[in-house]
Amino acid sequence: MMIEVRIVTPQGMYKTFETSILNVDTIDGQRGILPNHVPVVTMLKTGVLNVVENGTDRNYYAVDGGLLYYRDNKAELLVDDILHSSEIDVERQRAGIEKGNEMLRTMTDEAGAEEIRKRIRIRENRIKVAGMK
């Protein structure tokens, strides 16, 4: 028994695949979903999607938040953005963190500062996921 997974971003379909286990970071903590799991609707936080594809290949994705719908061995992830560990340019992420930290040093607008801190957390998560292979 497998779980059919569809990952959708605001730009459209990112990927479809089947997996025997779906591990995600939700706002309530980590959640592991196996076939025949009870239905789930939950918010995803910036974190890791960890799945087994093709029966044996463990894959890691950096997720920038979103929603997970699961029912009847079908999972749909509606995510703000997602990158496979192999797609992540670590140097670009580090440069973005450095630039964000520079901006925070002079920022007086708290709403703008919170958005920059969020972008830094996303980039830090991507660096972490890039090391997972």
Structure report:
This protein is an alpha+beta fold and 133 residues long. The protein has 2 domains: 3-85, ATP Synthase, domain 1 (Sandwich); 86-130. The protein is built from 2 helices and 7 strands. The chain has helices at 90-106, 110-130; strands at 3-9, 12-26, 29-33, 40-53, 57-71, 74-79, 82-84. A 5-stranded mixed beta barrel has the order 1-2-4-5-6. β4 (40-53) and β5 form a beta hairpin. α1 packs antiparallel against α2 (110-130). The two termini are 25 Å apart.
Brief rundown of the structure:
The protein is α+β, with helices and mostly antiparallel strands. It contains 2 helices and 7 strands; from the N terminus they run βββββββαα.
Quickly count the helices.
2
**Which CATH-level-2 architecture of the largest domain?**
Sandwich
Beta-strand level of the residues, as a percent range? over 45%
Low-confidence stretches: none
**Termini, distance in Å?**
25 Å
Cα-based radius of gyration, to the nearest Å? 16 Å
How many domains? The number is 2
**CATH class categorisation of the largest domain:** Mainly Beta
Neighbour order of strands in the largest sheet: 1-2-4-5-6
Helix coverage percent: 25-40%
Shape: elongated
- Oligomeric composition of the shown chains: single chain
Indicate the mean pLDDT. Answer: 94
What name is given to the CATH topology of the largest domain?
ATP Synthase, domain 1
What is the CATH homology-level superfamily of the largest domain? F0F1 ATP synthase delta/epsilon subunit, N-terminal
What is the helix/strand order? EEEEEEEHH
Structural class by sheet pairing and helices? alpha+beta
